[in-house]
Amino acid sequence: MLADVVPLYPLYALLFADTGLSDAEISALFAIWSVVGIVVEVPTGALADRFSRKSALVAGGVLQAAGYALWTATPGFTAFAAGFVLWGLGGSLVSGSVEALLYDGLVATGAQEHFTRIYGQVGAFELIAQIPAAVAATVLFPLGGYELVGWASVATCLTAAFVASRVPEPPRTESGEEDGEASYLAALRTGVVEAVRSPAVRGAVVAVALLTSLDGIEEYFPLLARDWHVPVDAIPLAVVAIPLAGAAGSALAGRLDRLRPLSLALVLLAGVLVFALAGLLGVPLGLVLVGLFYAAYRAVLVVANARLQERIDGTARATVTSVAGLGTDLAGLLLYAAWAVAGLPAALGLALVVVAVLPFGLRGRSAAGART
């Protein structure tokens, strides 16, 4: 997807480091990003449910562009933190809106049983988009450094926002009896109540939240590559194999759709063990093993998200999904703190905790009848 063809993606952790920030300060920036999500994740999901999910996608792209503009114009810890606030707000608007827009669109055509396959393909395209992003970063960086890469990223986000404005949105039934504020509060309450009180939904929300938080490890891939002796100017292309592997995992997730939760947990466990081996080796070829982990992880993540969507019965789909996003932000704080203290070993320890929790979160049977 165009929103993911951002040249800054493979370089921004290096931008922070080259500006003089320590690993602890970089982790603090990621923590700020998560805190913003904690504050606004669920309210923005309710906004999307009450008004327009398409408009939420557009606003998210504009805010992300504004954040990158700050980073590029005035690089430094304060500007980086402010940029993450804007990006966090924009990301919260997008979080839940994509899944809700896709699932409701499939429901409108009677094709909701294809959600896992299609959502997996969407995730694959998002990851494949990192290839042109890496190529762009590799080409632009020698020509104009972080500044050229940054402004190109701003332009990409604004273009993505325009494209999102052209996406069709299925009509939704509205009572017309409540004013905007009352309707918004009703959507907020409906989504939160379903996420908390329904055992099947609650378990899936927890599973998706914990699983998605592991994606924060991706922010450290460029730093791992540098620690494993990959030259800085080769890092964007060196790490591109990882999202490619993740794209393959997402695209093949439909084949895991009927697996029981324990089997899904074993798939994730295998990936975590392979990642641990890469960390022990500490060589450039270890990135191939990281790619295998990411493929397994993304496949399991797609299936977990699909089972969450299948279990949501109400109209506040984006709000419920945003509750999972809130959990992701909370768990992400723990991940960033763990990395700041003990690096990769601590992050992999948290991944093992997720493996242990996954079978319990996804147990039961979804509304669509998927075997869990």
From TrEMBL:
Top-level division of the source organism's lineage: Bacteria
Entry-linked InterPro entries: MFS (IPR011701), MFS_DHA3_Transporter (IPR053160), MFS_dom (IPR020846), MFS_trans_sf (IPR036259)
Mode of membrane association: Multi-pass membrane protein
Localization in the cell: Cell membrane
Domain Major facilitator superfamily (MFS) profile: 1-367
Parts of the chain that traverse the membrane: 26-48, 55-73, 79-103, 124-143, 234-254, 261-281, 344-362
Assigned keywords, A-Z: Membrane, Transmembrane, Transmembrane helix
Pfam family of the protein (one): MFS_1
Protein name: MFS transporter
